[in-house]
Request: fold
Amino acid sequence: MTEPRRYRVYLLRLWQAEGEEGGLVWRAALEDAPTGERKGFADIARLCAFLQAITADGAAHDTQPPDTPL
Reply:
């Protein structure tokens, strides 16, 4: 028997803001669609590290959406 596929649903927001040293930097926020929980990131590297961490460990919210071909 095969394991169900895992998925996550997030709304990603990206914007530029003034950094500590005066230049523009990219900021990011993820909103977990099922829970509405939001998480902010000071830069794209931290966003990517978070995404790598949650996809590596198979944490909560890992279920297969109905009728979704993958």
Observations:
- The mean pLDDT is 84.
- Residues 8 and 61 are 7 Å apart (CA to CA).
- The first strand starts at residue 10 and ends at 18.
- The helical segments are 44-57.
